[in-house]
Amino acid sequence: MTARQASSGQEPPELIIFDCDGVLVDSETIANAVMADEITALGWAVTTDYCLEHFKGSHLDTVMATIESKIGRSLPENWLPDLRARTDVAFRKDLQPVPGIYELLNLLAERGIPFCVASQGPHEKMAVTLDVTGLKPRFEGRIFSAYEVERGKPHPDLFLHAARSMGQEAIRCIVVEDSPLGVQGAVAAGMRVFGYDPAGLDPRLAQQGAEVFTDMNALPNLLRL
Fold first, then answer.
1. Residue 142 DSSP SS3
2. CB 156 within 8 A of CB 185
3. From 12's CA, which of 20, 60, 109, 173 has a CA 20 to 30 Å away?
4. What phi and psi, each to the nearest 5 degrees, are found at residue 41?
5. What is the Cα–Cα distance from 50 to 45, expressed in whole angstroms?
6. 3-class DSSP string for 96-116
7. Within a 13 Å sphere around the CA of 116, how many CA atoms are in the beta-carbon half?
């Protein structure tokens, strides 16, 4: 039995693993706008849209290596702390939960379906984003970061780590992602994956194996809840 077969029948999933940025919290445009400003200040002019297309879902180490290769020098020592500080300020000012996520989490709790979050970002970042949006209490003790495993997305390590920590088998887990790298990681872990694409503009999610949806309020029906 495949992961898709195991999770597409009448039985509910045993665990739903949510990505954080862009799935629980509407952070991607905010974070990538700050990123674009910081990169441009280094002499490589990029836009928010460019960062969304090329860096969305990537580990910061990978992003920083790409920047260094483009500008031909090492990043200043304070570049990453400054980026995080500016991003945190922007989050505290403007960050909102993804529309429909509260209702979805309420439904999962009512049905007794466990859920957790598995993010490419560090715990420090999630502490801010989940707190600002009021979601942190929903995920206490069930927050997993790629910084806990050897390899982040697109490798399966993070999703497998989350499933093991929650006492579940990969085949009975469902992942909700918004980035191609995250979809690749979920597929590699043997998990069914739904790709959240509210603008409906990213064909890469389906190409990597996700079942794409555009409205978080539609997910309960897709999960047959």
1. coil
2. yes
3. 20
4. -65, -20
5. 10
6. CECCCHHHHHHHHHHHCCCEE
7. 21
